[in-house]
Amino acid sequence: MFSSSISSLKATKDTSPKAQSFTIFQSISLKSKPSKPSTKMHFSAITASITALLLSSSISALPNPSPAQDLTPRACSTISPSPIDILDASKPDEVTYDGDLVLNRTSNGNNGYQNTKSTLVSFNNIPWQATGCMLRLTIPKLTKTSQIARANPDQSGAFQADVWKVEADPLGRATWNTPPKKDQFVSTIRFPTTQQDQPFETYIWSGVCPSVNPQSHYPYGGVLSFLLEGSGWQQFAGDVRLYNSIGGKSANPEPAGLALVYNC
What CA–CA distance (Å, rounded) separates 204 from 200? Predict the structure, then answer.
């Protein structure tokens, strides 16, 4: 009888609430068993951390922005021609120095006209490694007619001159019979024969500054020379006399004539 009871007990299904609860929990536990952690996800997280650290270090290592004053452009350097050499047909073998730009054109006696005076300007002692050389022309305010130029007959209100870059002549030794060798035509200049209410300024040439190494012991530094002569097409007599100054002097406080500008 005892054996029968045991067999009957084994065959009886436990339907109590407690047993059902255990069965449900066991089912859920088996289904929700955690999976093995992903090695790929773990590596990606480490890589992201390292990248963020490197980026932070790079940003902190960047140099500080330059102060605004570091961006201020340099002031230009300006020099006057020295010497100014007048090539004079009436004194063809003489060297004549002047402080003015002087030009002259007269009748040749055959119903034509010819130049009889030209001007050679030389800029000496241009510093070694100077950059951006420019030839500047300044026409001052003119308060009266024929103040700096005349033309007869006055057909256009100006006397025109051609400007040539020529072989460097640091001492201004050229004469009418031994003019400097022309290198490059630069521009034309119109010297007004009429009144001008305002000064006029323009740049008529720009190019590479001459480079002379100071160790060469060349006494004149870099040199640039330019020749001014009346334009050949002008069929009239005329002349120019314009004081040449970069200004700032008691005698000539305002700039006028030609100047060389560099290192702007």
Answer: 13
Cβ contacts of 241 within 8 Å, gap of 6 or more: 100, 101, 102, 148, 149
Q: Compute the radius of gyration of the chain from its Cα atoms.
A: 46
Beta-ladder partners of 160: 190
Distances 128 to 167, 207, 222, 263 between C-alpha atoms, Å = 19, 15, 7, 11
pLDDT tens digits, residue range 183-214? 999 999 999 999 999 999 999 999 999 877 65
| Residue 125 three-state SS | strand
Mean per-residue pLDDT of the chain: 78
In the DSSP assignment, the letter for residue 142 is: B
Could you identify the residue written with the tokens 């073998």?
A: 93
Higher pLDDT, residue 148 or 155 = 148
- Residues 6+ away with beta carbon under 8 Å from 125: 79, 220, 221, 222
Counting residues of the chain whose pLDDT is more than 70, the rounded percentage is 67
- Reported as a pLDDT band with limits 50, 70 and 90, residue 68 is very low
224 contacts 260 by C-beta, under 8 angstroms? yes
Would you state the pLDDT for residue 158? Answer: 94
DSSP notation for 58-102: HHHHSPPPPPGGGGPPPPPEEE--S-EEEEETTSTT--EE-SEEE
